[in-house]
Amino acid sequence: MTLPTVHVRDLRPDDPADTEAVVRVRRAALPFIVTTVDGVAFALDSAHPDARFRLLVAETADGRVVGTAHVGLAHDSPRPGQSYVNACVDPAARACGAGTALLRAAEEHLAEHGAVDAYAWVLAEPANRSFAERHGYRPSRSSKFLRLNLVEAALPPLPRELPAGVEVRPASAFAADPRPLFEADAEATADEPSDVPASLDDYQRWLDGVWHDPTLDHELTSVVLVDGAVAAFSAARTDGRTRYSSAMTGTRRAFRGRGLAKLAKTDSLRRARAAGYTDAFTGNDAGNGPMLAINEWFGYEICATETRYTKKLGGTSG
Length: 318
Description:
30% of the residues lie in helices and 30% in strands. It is an alpha+beta fold. The protein folds into two domains: 6-143 and 307-312, Aminopeptidase; 154-298, Aminopeptidase, CATH 3.40.630. The chain has a twelve-stranded mixed sheet with strand order 1-2-3-4-5-12-6-11-10-9-8-7, with helices on both faces. Strand 2 and strand 3 form a beta hairpin. It starts with 5 loop residues before the first strand and ends in a 6-residue tail after the last strand.
């Protein structure tokens, strides 16, 4: 059998067919991640210059896109030299060399820009794990993807009366000044388990890269306030059709242990169902016991597991 020739290049942002092909591949390979045409374009447009971000595609000789990869430097990590490459291939086109070609192009790009360590999320399936290990990657932590059928789920009711001083609002209520949400997100992100710690310390970059992301649904993102201060939130990403994803649920340190994350998520999920969304997804680090317990309480079930793989690229940081 002769394998098709695969060519790797950058996404053509001005070609709608190119972006649509990337969305098609991602949805086929990673159906539990919300992916939209606008979201793909936004990822390119909003990338920080220091990230050296590239969105690569692998196409066959006849111009068919069969794979794609996000590649960049973790510029917001306090540890220099960290980078990421997350590649996926259309399940219908595996074993054609697309994954190898994408990985080679990604590693060359990262090494050229001083990356020392490359991290990649790999579906915990034998073929995927074997592929990563053959290319010099070694496993570290794991993450669980979970799904909730919003049509059939017995979602918990909202309290008839909230405790004194507690209220729930959509993120859209902060349109004039979202800084309190940035501060809550920064604190929750700092405490999130990760091989590559991230630090949110640039408000404008957060506005540009998070708040204005077209997949972030401001109406379905729920925020809990205590005496007027943001205490907890559940951020929602949607595809505008049927798929809803919890991007981050967090509570500020001073308010933890009071059930406020559950309140925020309950409110968001119930409003998502009312808006016509049928499938809810979320992802949790395998070591994040409290959040996994909350999602189990809601009725989420594990639908996939990813393992974080890492490889020394031999570059020098700086």
